[in-house]
Amino acid sequence: MLNFEFQSPTKIYFGKGVEAKLGQVLKDAGHKRILFHYGKGSIFKNGLYERLMTTLKDAGLEVFELGGVEANPKIDLVRKGVALVKEKGIDAVVACGGGSVIDSAKLIAVASTSDVDPWEYSMHKEIVKTTLDLACILTISAAGSELSNSCVISNPENNLKRGFNSDLIRPKWAFLNPELTYSVSKYQTACGVVDILMHTFERYLTYDNAPLTRSMANGLIKTVIDNGLVCFNDPTNYDARAQIMLASSLSHNGLTGLGIKMFFTVHKLEHEVSGFYPSVAHGAGLAVLFPVWAEEMIPNHTKLFSDFAVNALGIKDTGDELANALDGIKYIRSYFVSLEMPHSLREFGIKEEDLPKLALSATQNKTASVLGITDLEYEDVLKIYQNAY
User: Fold this and answer.
1) Residue 267 confidence (pLDDT)
2) What's the pTM?
């Protein structure tokens, strides 16, 4: 097991109606002026907006709003948020939504404490030194941003989607009510299930000896596979939604990566896709790319993928490691099909002539490798995109 540092300071309020505590929690922490950050309006349809405004105003908090966060959140809205925070003297941020809203709020909270353009953090030209307190009310189980130390933002000016990490950006409070995810569409539910699995798969598929970490990952993977289909077919099943919501948080807070070197190779490949094509849902892109990447890796990492198939996916051990590994990927493909996920890049409307551009961007114009259990050069990345097409 490798040396590691782990910090998970987020206080979780989990269960039915927990969002009603939001105002008092912020008041008790000494906050007075709040930025309320959200997406495109779904919170108005189910009454959540009114309930949150009530708890915030009953606590005597002054609330300023910034909505309009899109999937693959954009840097221009982050900049607007930073300007609003500075203009109004806001002292805490509340994010209501899924990973996109929370990531946007994270960068607003960070950049509001400095004079640095927010994009500098995403490009690793600036490191996080301070941040405002952040509370999140989760409405989509997927990205795990409610407990994670990562933030991913898109910049339409250059078609880049980039992320950075810092323990300082972990939310201070997370309000997790599974009932708030009942209205999530089947497609977005499926994308979320894929994203949760991929956060665990990408940590699992390394060589470091961390048996306890592996055991936690095995349990999480099984729970998500079993309950993901239940949520997809029975969206108001509270128990299944609760399991998926908690798995979303634990899949990306670092527990399933303790003592392990992580690469997140497939995530990086997908970020290029949704950076160029913002309409591509992150989970859907991962569903297309992961099996293709895995098949490229299996010849040189057969035992690793065989162990993954048998121990994490429950594939019957045939005694043939190559057969096990291939059966595991076949099982994952079949599972994604059961969630009605796409299986090719062309289904997103991606142009074949853009594939070399994606590969060039991923490898910084052939000057860098995409790191992984096998590092990928330009030709390797292009081959994966082409095979996924």
Assistant:
1) 97
2) 0.93
